[in-house]
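Ticket #956: bound-state structure for iron/sulfur cluster.
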Amino acid sequence: MSDVTLTIDGRRVTVPEGTTIWDAAQTLGIDIPVLCHDPRLDPVGVCRVCAVDVGERTLPAACVRAVSPDMEVRTDTQEIMAHRRVLTELLLADQPAVSQREQTTGDDKLYALAREVKVTDIPWPDQSERQPRGQDASSPVIAVDHQACIMCDRCVRACDDIQHNDVITRTGKGYSARIAFDLDVPMGESSCVSCGECVAVCPTGALTHQSLATTDAG
Amino acid sequence: MKQFADSTNATFSDLTETATLCPYCGVGCALNYGSDSEGVIHYAKGRDGASNAGRLCVKGRYGFDYAAHPQRLTRPLIRRDDAYPRGPLSTFSRANSSGPRKPGGIVDYAEVLPHFREATWEEALERAASGLAKVRDTHGAHALAGFGSAKGSNEEAYLFQKFIRTVLGTNNVDHCTRLCHASSVYALIEGIGSGAVTNVVRDVENAEVAVIAGCNPTANHPVAASFMKQAAAKGTGLLAVNVRRPGMASYCEQYCQITPGSDVAFYNAVMHVIIAEDLHDQAFIDQRTEGFEALAKAVKPYTPEAAEAMTGVPAAQITAFARRLGQAQSAMFFWGMGISQHVFGTDNARCLIALALLTGNIGRPGTGLHPLRGQNNVQGASDAGLVPMYYPGYQAVSDASVRERFEQLWNVSLPEQPGLTTAEITHAALEGEIRGLYCMGENPFLSDPDMNQVRKALSSLDCLVVQDLFITETAEFADVILPASAFMEKRGTFTNTDRRVQIGRPVRQPPGQARQDWHILRDLAQRLGHDWDYADESAVFDEFVQAAPLYANLTYDRLGEHGRWYPCPDANSEGERVLFGDQFPIGRGRFVPAELGQAPDLPDDDYPLVLNTGRQLEHWHTGVMTRRSRALDALAPEARVEVHPSDAKRLGITDGSWTTLRSRRGAVEVQAHITRDVALGTLFLPMHFREAAANLLTTPELDPFGKIPQFKICAVALAPLSTPLTPPQPDAVSHAAG
Ligand code: SF4
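RESOLUTION: The complex was predicted; output attached.
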């Protein structure tokens, strides 16, 4: 495989053909914000937060777009910043008021992004007021809050492609689309083996650990 | 308009993430514990370890809270004078007690604690040291024995065996490897000269086929299983052989369900086909092995048709299996307790080794022998000499020159007499030959076969010192209980199934007055007149490396956060993944032919079914840790015996109904789980549950080479609970709690 040389934010970089823009940026230490992608997973480009400017009519998602020779990539134009902020606001519009992930492992990626792009007001309607998406507390170890789910598919890929347990899938259409277990049974009754990989990869409070910390006996 | 409300939790800014390991299985997953300044662990996160690449299973992810369980021992305990004669103290440890449990299913402290009193460390150590010394002075050193633990670090294992050998003066030191892969290790040392795996689990991605023999990795080595499943998704052909359908079967090209105890017939027939169809690797056989003729002769009678009658697997399936394996460019062999835990466990393992030699599948990427090691440090504990026949590094106790070298290193004179193994120690206690036992982190009462005999054996001792986190079933019999440290409270090295040596680091302090296990060993040695002095764990490790050239070039500094494999040829090497590319430690590999043997304790009219025992995903061994983990206990709170639907129907048993399960040695009451995973006429009972203790039923017969008990076959009768039990045998042993 041959190498490809391109420019990202004015810096030249050479990577093997087929590398994604997101991975190429990583080699330069440029961290393009992203929610649906994790280096352990095959990219799907659904959250669009990692969109970058390559001089085309639209903004491609860096996590899936492969580099091409002499590509000129910008990751920080005003347009991109605005795009990121609006996407973040839209995702936040129907999030629960408090992130369960911030309460259990302290690493909600959506909230971190909101802080990074300095979201204050959320000028978008909150659909959950009319159509709440529900919770599933049937597993003794994993708490499911569909309201916090952004349908990034990370858990589906972690369950299928990392742990190969093939439990999680998607179901429904439109605003009622959500993740589901087996043939849409409560998680605690499904074939889930509680490995917790879905919790580990979930970027929001949708899949979190049920509280486990105990106080010391000593 | 809605505002963004930052819901950061202040707790998390104070958490420290410590790079350490999972305390459970031999996969040895690397993880970070997020803990606060009080030592409370809030979560476990997978870390990029060589064996797990960030993955964890349910035990690693959720099973860490046992260390903070309210039952943790915080002060040394001494048995009260009125609690003699020695015997079991809690209901489920007594004879003829089984059935519906109290919540949690763990030893009931209200029943047990009144028979002990708290003591100072000074008094407890004195009592332990003088108790052991008294046995030695009256009955001789060989009346003493020690059970160390594969849950402890290499340093603890090394010091424990050193204590038993140099301070007490006997080679009677062993641990649960004897109940696990002792037969595999025997066969490996005999066949290729090394008892460890020849290749790492993750190399399965380079294998064209992989044999998954007598093991259930999705339950027992879940993260290893995820790499096997991943390889299967990318084209590796998985071939499973088992008596009970393993979860992995769904990902396999072929699954052969053999009848219990027929492994040798199956593999001999596979070798028969491979030789008959000229699929063997003649070049490898010529250059690297010896004894091929004898093997070819031995497998000759095992035609697929003959084997069909012995194994229940159709001849055509055996032939297909042999062809797929024989034609593959590379094959790995994984196996577990279904191979090893038989009176002919060594023969079973010999067959797999022969199969690998026959097909030239050792020493290249995507090939190799991999007995999946159970405990997080069972490889390391064996490496460190926690076995009766070897000093650290598999150097034979019976070799006078080796013994001399160790006498110089340790500056003592060492016993010549070879030591007894785990089950032999129990048997010797029954004969009155073993009078004192020091038990560090093992729970033989539940883990050893034929619990009624173990109960008698423990009751008959003159001195029992138990060092553990909790009052285990075994500790109920103790004179002295020494409160020890949990995995997440200690620093030490642990060697996983891949031979990867990694450092575990503490994230909390032992509760109350509980102490580091190696400090307790050091203090006892000093009390008994041995001048032990180590600056810290790494100094112990350095002495171990000096004793065992196997671990050459490893130090704490070099292990760092990610560890290395042994053997490690030089200071800059990562260690070796694939071993024996050019030759075996014994030169040529040896074919050791095996004939199908007969298991003891087979079914008859009174005991018509075959019981298989083993583990389940959420639990660990005798449940001491996992049943004290809230998450794991909630996921799997009780024992279930697996019954085939046709057997269930015939016996009038429904899913979830209570049954009596009776063997020639005892009976338990347990709920039924109806599943086609078990074959008709066979049952499966997990070993973790004291209120339905599988080892009350199992038979104590041993493999003659590996000395491993036959946990996988015992004849039983199953009946709905309404049928009256056979009259209980009078309890031969009086117990203090009467
Ligand atoms: S696979 Fe083994 S080492 Fe890994 S998390 Fe599970 S129990 Fe722990």
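RESOLUTION NOTES: The two ends of chain A are 60 Å apart (CA to CA).
TICKET STATUS: resolved
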